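quick q for whoever's on today - can somebody do inverse folding on this one?? i tried earlier but teh output was garbage lol. tokens:
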């Protein structure tokens, strides 16, 4: 938590956290980004999406999912009666990797405290992870998205228990009709998960804890060795 924000309400803490993150020096992407893309949407959202990393347009505008993948995400949201403003959207990495290359493990580790704190402040009921990177990070399981999409599970992130729902990344579905169909089908299950429908969440899967949010610091502390066991790759 940013220093001096202890007495604030959670939405104000989130705002302060975003301002703190805007100057993040914690990995090499600080040298190449235009700006930090912290996240956007309702600070008390019941539904949160976690993508991979900002692309060109996000880096320019400072807002996640503003390109073609974002348009698809907005269409899918509309089909379940929601708008962007009803949800919170963030990424595993807050800064664009040069040339939109894949996130690297040390970048994910350096950025993870921001995501954990976002989740702890928003306390969403459901987190839909978009694609492999966010799914592997937040489940702590190396199983790929093709295997685990559409399977909801309880996880604990920091001190927050959420229903995690892995789905395909909209960018991957844009040009692959079969994947789009699966993404649409999975998406239609989100309202039931938000409503806590009985039987929607795989009961046998144990909760997975990833590192708790760190204390306030300008430079985030190195993540514990346990992070290396997340099996991202
Ligand atoms: N893809 C992502 O994963 N995140 C964005 O913000 C945009 C595209």
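ok took a stab at it. sequence:
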């Amino acid at each position: 938590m940013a220093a001096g924000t202890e007495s604030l309400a959670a939405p104000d803490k989130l705002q302060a956290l975003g301002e703190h993150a805007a100057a993040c020096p914690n990995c090499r992407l600080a040298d190449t980004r235009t700006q930090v893309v912290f996240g956007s949407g309702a600070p008390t959202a019941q539904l949160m999406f976690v993508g991979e990393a900002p692309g060109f347009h996000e880096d320019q505008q400072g807002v996640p999912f503003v390109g073609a993948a974002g348009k698809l995400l907005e269409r899918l949201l509309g089909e379940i009666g929601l708008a962007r403003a009803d949800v919170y959207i963030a990424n595993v990495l807050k800064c664009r990797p040069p040339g939109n290359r894949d996130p690297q493990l040390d970048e994910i580790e350096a950025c993870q405290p921001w995501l954990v704190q976002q989740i702890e402040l928003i306390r969403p009921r459901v987190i839909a992870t978009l694609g492999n990177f966010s799914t592997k990070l937040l489940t702590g399981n190396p199983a790929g998205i093709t295997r685990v999409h559409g399977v909801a599970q309880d996880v604990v992130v920091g001190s927050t228990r959420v229903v995690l729902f892995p789905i395909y990344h909209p960018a991957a579905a844009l040009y692959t009709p079969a994947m789009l169909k699966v993404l649409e089908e999975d998406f239609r299950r989100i309202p039931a998960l938000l409503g806590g429908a009985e039987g929607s969440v795989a009961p046998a899967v144990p909760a997975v804890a990833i590192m708790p949010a760190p204390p306030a610091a300008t430079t985030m502390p190195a993540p514990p060795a346990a992070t290396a066991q997340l099996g991202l790759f």
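fwiw Strands lie at 40-41, 47-51, 88-91, 126-130, 153-157, 160-167, 209-210. also The chain has nine helices and seven strands. so keep that in mind when u check it
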